[in-house]
Amino acid sequence: MRFAAGRACAALLTVLAPFAARAQAIPPADQQIAAAVLALPAEMRAGAGVMGYKAPGKLELLRPVKNGMLCLADDPAEEQFHVSCYADTIDPFMARGRSLREQGVKGAQVDTARFAEIRSGKLKMPEKPAALYQIFGPKGAYDHATGKVTSGRALFVVYVPFATPESTGLSGVPSSNTPWLMLGGTPKAHIMFSATM
After folding, report:
1. 40 backbone φψ class: left, alpha, beta (φ>0; ψ -120 to 50)
2. How confident is the model over 153-190, as pLDDT tens digits?
3. How far is Cα 71 from Cα 66, in angstroms, rounded to an integer?
4. Which contiguous run of DSSP H or E holds residue 167?
5. What is the mean pLDDT of residues 20-38?
6. What's the rounded Cα separation, in Å, for the pair 39 and 69?
7. 69 and which of 48, 80, 160, 188 could share a cystine (Cβ 3.0–4.6 Å)?
8. DSSP state letters, 146-166
9. Cα dihedral angle (94, 96, 101, 103), rounded to 10 degrees?
10. Nearest to 147 by CA among 71, 35, 44, 42
11. 51-79: string of b/e by CB count within 10 Å (b at 16+)?
């Protein structure tokens, strides 16, 4: 009887775990903004808009865009620390990805759906390049007291929809010391840069 009760309790904890994660405390808006903009070069931070969390799992605008860059705050419910900033011209593409994931679409199927919408004209991609800056790290990577990321990995890309190695002169082979083109020929084609450059 005790064994069965233990199994029932473990099963209940498994079911409730996602809800417990979502119940994590949401940092004040100013802390979310301070952390989110760290993905950008210092001179671009003050004018960047920021989307963050006022309620669990719901991104909302915390600060308007003034310089063409939009940042996403770290989701307190996620297991990893992640902030990103990108040119607001590519926000329709990014927002559609978030919407599809909220609907339960997973993995590569997100891009499959977005690419189909781009081909049909329902979803528009920017005509000019659009930069994306990100920082990934363990959950404690950002220290609210110091306002610094103490551990983490930066990633920089520039979206150039439908670009190819031939149209850009960039290799499609991954490299750690030179820029290279990822997903060439697709709506999501982008130039990858190493954080050590």
Report:
1. beta
2. 999 999 999 999 999 999 999 998 899 999 999 999 99
3. 12
4. helix 165-168
5. 83
6. 11
7. 48
8. TTEESS-EEEEEEE-TT--HH
9. 160
10. 35
11. bbbeeeeebeebbebeeebbbbbbbbbee
User: If we measure between CA atoms, which residue out of 79, 67, 71, 66 comes closest to residue 53?
Assistant: 71
Decide: 158 and 131 in contact? Cβ < 8 Å: yes
Please, is 104 exposed, middle or buried when counting C-beta atoms within 10 Å of its C-beta (0-12, 13-18, 19+)?
Answer: exposed
Is a pLDDT exceeding 60 seen at residue 142? Answer: yes
Query: What's the pTM?
Result: 0.84
pLDDT tens for each residue of 44-101: 999 999 999 999 989 999 999 999 999 999 999 999 999 999 999 999 999 999 999 9
pLDDT by residue (tens digit) across 35-49?
A: 999 999 999 999 999
Cα 65 to chain centroid, rounded = 17
Check: CB of residue 189 under 8 Å from CB of residue 154: no
